[in-house]
Amino acid sequence: MLSPIDIFARSPAEPASWATGFDRSVLTIPRPHGIPTCSPCVPRRWLRVASHRTGDVVSERAGNGLPQLTGSALEAVGHRGSHLQIIASAGAGKTEVVSQRVVDLLAEGVAPEAIVAFTFTARAAEELKNRIVQRVEGRLGKAALDRLNGLFVGTIHAFCFRLLQQRVPRYETYDVLDDNQLTAFLSREANRLELRQLDPGNRLFASIAAFLKAVDVVENELLGTDPLPDPVKSVLHNYYETLDRYRLLTYGQQVVRAVRELERPAFAADIHATLRHLIVDEYQASTRRRNGLSSC
Ligand SMILES: Nc1ncnc2c1ncn2[C@@H]1O[C@H](COP(=O)(O)OP(=O)(O)OP(=O)(O)O)[C@@H](O)[C@H]1O
Ligand SMILES: [Mg+2]
């Protein structure tokens, strides 16, 4: 059975290191002016697509006010039964395709709670949300907006936090630290965490900066603390312990913890029972940590 990874939409700039060993069709929307857009590392099905920006599309708006998709863009909206990766240049219509796909699934009768659409920044999430709302209203009518309860559209972090809070009892009472709050937390806890040993000059903010850099690598690569040398290992260990004691999650930890939970087969099966369509926009912004989440 397929896991509910459904659609990945990304710009072509990044090499698709994650694209191996994955049952996935590839759909490309060609960059205007014929510049090739498909990464050579994606050896999958190749479909020629008409983008609205190539001039191939005559009618831009259908009667319901929705941008009229054609060719492979339309095919991506209606694609069912296997994973699909969309690679297209900036402005080619990726968000449009994934938004219309969400609406298409809803129109088909898929339950809102079976669909999760996420992206990586608050701004991109806001854009995706607005686009989906407009397309739902355009195709299904205003009343349909009241029936979207359970549909998740947002950032990957918000999705992970919701997953943890709703499904893992110990996270019910956790709060999230944003980046500024995290810096304040580190400066407050610096002595207890013995942070200054990470800077040869023993300076507070330089050691915080060095620490945050290390945390980023460790969490993006899902490394865990075991393979690390001291003093980074011991500082990180204390850091996670302290965050847990205060019942706090950082942005990075939200995803790491969700991935960890999803690695438990029973937990993953529980999620897969409801979630049937996972749609990811801006997939090029993804890291190993985030890829780990999508492939669970
Ligand atoms: N077939 C179409 N006909 C008319 N307008 C379209 C079509 N497809 C997309 N558009 C419009 O073109 C604009 C750019 O599309 P969109 O934001 O989906 O591109 P994108 O590939 O996601 O861009 P980015 O790389 O910046 O994320 C949007 O206003 C969208 O509604
Ligand atoms: Mg987009």
> Helix and strand succession?
EEHEHEHEHEHHHEHHEH
Are there runs of 5+ residues with pLDDT below 50, and where?
13-25, 29-60
Number of domains: 2
**Helix residue percentage:** 40-55%
**CATH homologous superfamily title of the largest domain:** P-loop containing nucleotide triphosphate hydrolases
Radius of gyration: 21 Å
Strand proportion: 5-15%
Largest sheet data: 6 strands, parallel
Name of the CATH first level of the largest domain = Alpha Beta
Protein name: UvrD-helicase domain-containing protein
Keywords: ATP-binding, DNA-binding, Helicase, Hydrolase, Nucleotide-binding
InterPro entries: DExx_box_DNA_helicase_dom_sf, DNA_helicase_UvrD/REP, P-loop_NTPase, UvrD-like_ATP-bd
Would you kindly provide a brief summary of this structure?
ATP binds at residues 88-95. The protein is of the alpha/beta class and 296 residues long. The protein has helices spanning 71-78, 94-107, 122-140, 156-167, 179-193, 204-220, 232-245, 251-262, 265-274, 288-294; strands at 5-10, 24-29, 83-88, 115-119, 152-155, 175-177, 248-250, 277-280.
Commentary on this structure:
Strands 2-3-1-8-4-5 form a six-stranded parallel sheet. A two-stranded parallel ribbon has the order 6-7. Helices cover 43% and strands 12% of the residues. Helix 3 links the parallel strand 4 (115-119) and strand 5 (152-155). It has two domains: 5-167 and 255-294, Rossmann fold (3-Layer(aba) Sandwich), CATH 3.40.50.300; 175-246, no CATH class. With 296 residues, it is of the alpha/beta class. The structure holds adenosine-5'-triphosphate and magnesium ion (MG). Magnesium ion is lined by residues 94-95, 281.
